[in-house]
Amino acid sequence: MKIINLQDRRDLLPAIARAHVQAFGTLLPDWTVAQAEAELAGQQRDGIPCSWLAMEGDDWLGSVSLLHDDHEQIRGWSPWLASLYVSPAARGKGVGAALVAQCVAQAAVLGVAQLYLYCEAPMVGWYRSLGWRVHAELQLGPLAITVMAVDTGGG
Q1: Is residue 70 predicted with pLDDT exceeding 70?
Q2: 64: closest CA among 14, 11, 107?
Q3: Could you give the CA distance from residue 99 to residue 127 in angstroms, rounded to a whole number?
Q4: CA distance 142 to 125
Q5: E strand or H helix at 22
Q6: pTM score > 0.85 for this model?
Q7: What is the dihedral of CA 100, 102, 103, 107, to 10 degrees?
Q8: Most CB atoms within 10 A, among 38, 118, 134, 141?
Q9: Over 129-150, what HEC string results?
């Protein structure tokens, strides 16, 4: 498995956008594939926002993004590890952990001292195993979420 910057495989933008809307669209019911693709297309290589892909040869296994804002209701914290997605066939093989580590490392390179994410309760233990801590618990639209934080070593 190799992790690359999204900018190196812009041909995958439509597939990534479809996967993101399918996986995360319940939280943003008006979000379209076209909007997701435009958001991804506007990302940077060496700044925020940016995304990385886990690749096995030409196969896209998953993605993760580093964003200034992840949802309009939680703009008090920034930046965010967001849109961690691993294809169903690649789950349980370390792809997600590798993508999280990449995002945290790149945040540190960019001078980010603390990085945030939010997840539902079943994922809290997994993120804790990667060094994240609970920062807050709140209601985000229809979901009860846990905001988590990690010190990146940057900043």
Answers
A1: no
A2: 107
A3: 12
A4: 21
A5: helix 13-24
A6: yes
A7: 140
A8: 118
A9: HCCCEEEEEEEECCEEEEEEEE
